[in-house]
């Protein structure tokens, strides 16, 4: 590789992101001969596609999420190798996960941006899959934010997705009864047979609010919500006293251009003494090592499964991203570069 | 008094409650000669009007709040005297606060329904005013649910109301900077001059969202919301990272017939790591003595003021209730019975 391939954000999508929203460019590899203190040069080899990246494509607002500048490389959660380092915490050749961008090479200040070493026993796929950003987000959302009680009736929306599938399994491990909501019969079957959910609801063929009322007449004690909109409404209508709602994502609204309404009838939250709480993985930086260790232990002891959907080819980055919003991914969606694909990273 | 005067709910209001929604009836005084164990007969002397009573007039739903049966006396927060007791915790002549109804005499099971003794040094007005349901609701919402930090920028909606005025003063005592939102210039002036708010916003003449952005560019850390709807939206648009929203009331929607939408853009709650939590005073039954003691201490030491709006006449109950929704009350709105009005209770 003698050039730095990049996918730049060329225009802001108003609906789903499509290839035409990005511009392919071949730049020079960044000059790392004189790195500023704290900075590292990373060779990106794997990109994780997460739904919230769609928000980063929106115009700057008075909200909190980052906005990718037009004409600059699309930000992404990635894994790769330190090629050059002027940071005492990172050595050349070290494998890391980081927030870099859709490009081959990224220079960044590792004291400011998240860059985390990948343990020797893990592949890059494992580092961004079973113990990657989505899985750790599920872990923190359940154990640190939501803190369910054993015996709780717990619902997960987007349950077949990368975060939801982990959240559901952790809830089961913690002793909850689990109901997963997904968008196809195939996914629903898998929620029960593979991921251990007690019940699955197909929101494309079933009325979620009514079905929940039938199968959970005592109400929902815990809701891990990746979807928002109608899903949030349907569960709020069935919420139990003293319930907890973990606000993890609002994928229902990411392509809409207008914000999704929150749940109608906030009175249910008042009279129900319900807590609804949003969070980001970055709020729990200190708990990441423990979360990583715990998830790996669950996986190795057979208590948890993880499914990856790995695509290859730097060229495919914009196209594969849209699969997140059409339900065409089958597990944590990652793209490995052509070079890296030759040896499973 | 030889009859039991009652105001029955005759039909369910679809907008504001009006006198025609109620039916006046004179019944026999309940026979207390053979009270069931745990039961007491209470002579009601004072009725507190709280906005949430409007919700109790709605049809039964799958929500949690109580529904008053058609043709039965309207439920109300009250104060009065135990006339007859078959409950070891209550003696005849003892003054109490309770959830009774718009009637002169109520029999209820004091082991099931909330009945609380009134301390000797308090009048019935004080028991339902400065340390009544609304004031204690503010106390629990701030100190037990919200738990603000000193230095927080705190906003209170419905700040001139019975609950909001107490919440704002407690926030100030705890070291917050306080912004109050109210619906008239007169009330706004009073928020600052009498209740110690740092700033007041008149939502009828000012754009709340825009004004907050100007006077709180760092964002709102703490929101005590009595109103919901547009007020909740305006504050959410200005919410700071790691903020807390205490969901106390949704008076904006109580007369609408349809539930008020929750805040749009729940993403702000996610990326802001914001907690929104509803509650009821009854969740904190054990903390009520301590809250009562603390509020009285603040009042006696001059740190807190309390304003009562006391009307008299059992006949006026339905008409005075509607003043809550037109802003025509000036402090905690209570109605004392004609008999009781002769000696300030």
Question: How would you sum up this structure in a few lines?
Answer:
The structure is a homodimer of 345-residue chains. With 345 residues, chain A is of the alpha/beta class.
Please name the CATH architecture of the largest domain in chain A.
Answer: Alpha-Beta Complex
Please give the domain count of chain A.
2
Mean pLDDT of chain A, to the nearest integer, reads: 93
Q: Could you spell the SSE succession of chain A in H and E letters? A: EEEHEEEEHHEHEHEHEHEHEHEHEH
What general form of chain A does the structure show? globular
Tally of separate helices of chain A? 11
So what's the oligomer here? Answer: homodimer
CATH class of the largest domain in chain A: Alpha Beta
Residues in helix, % of chain A: 25-40%
Largest interface (C-beta under 8 Å): A-B, 40 and 40 residues
Low-confidence stretches of chain A: none
The number of distinct β-strands of chain A equals 15
Question: Beta-strand level of the residues of chain A, as a percent range?
Answer: 25-35%
Which structural class matches the secondary elements of chain A? alpha/beta
Please outline the major beta sheet of chain A: 7 strands, mixed
């Amino acid at each position: 590789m003698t050039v730095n391939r990049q996918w730049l954000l060329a225009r802001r999508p108003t609906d789903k992101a499509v290839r035409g929203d990005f511009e392919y460019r071949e730049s020079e590899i960044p000059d790392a001969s004189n790195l500023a203190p704290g900075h590292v040069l990373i060779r990106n080899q794997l990109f994780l596609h997460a739904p919230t990246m769609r928000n980063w494509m929106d115009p700057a607002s008075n909200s909190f999420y980052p906005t990718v500048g037009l004409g600059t490389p699309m930000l992404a959660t990635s894994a790769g190798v330190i090629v050059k380092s002027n940071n005492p915490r990172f050595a050349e050749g070290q494998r890391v996960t980081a927030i870099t961008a859709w490009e081959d090479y990224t220079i960044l200040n590792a004291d400011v941006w998240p860059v985390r070493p990948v343990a020797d026993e893990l592949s890059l796929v494992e580092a961004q899959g079973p113990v990657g950003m989505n899985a750790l987000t599920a872990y923190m959302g359940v154990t640190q934010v939501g803190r369910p009680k054993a015996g709780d009736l717990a619902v997960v929306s987007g349950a077949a997705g990368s975060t939801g599938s982990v959240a559901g399994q952790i809830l089961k491990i913690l002793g909850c009864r689990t109901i997963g909501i997904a968008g196809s019969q195939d996914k629903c079957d898998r929620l029960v047979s593979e991921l251990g959910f007690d019940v699955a609801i197909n929101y494309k063929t079933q009325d979620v609010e009514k079905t929940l009322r039938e199968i959970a007449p005592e109400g929902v004690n815990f809701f891990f919500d990746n979807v928002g909109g109608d899903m949030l409404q349907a569960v709020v209508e069935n919420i139990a006293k003293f319930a907890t709602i973990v606000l993890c994502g609002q994928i229902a609204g990411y392509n809409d251009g207008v914000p999704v309404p929150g749940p109608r009838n906030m009175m249910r939250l008042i009279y129900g003494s319900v807590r609804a709480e949003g969070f980001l993985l970055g709020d729990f930086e200190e708990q990441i090592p423990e979360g990583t260790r715990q998830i790996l232990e669950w996986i190795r002891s057979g208590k948890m499964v993880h499914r990856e959907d790995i695509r290859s080819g730097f060229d495919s980055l914009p196209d594969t991203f849209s699969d997140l919003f059409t339900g065409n991914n089958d597990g944590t969606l990652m793209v490995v570069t052509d070079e890296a694909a030759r040896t499973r990273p």
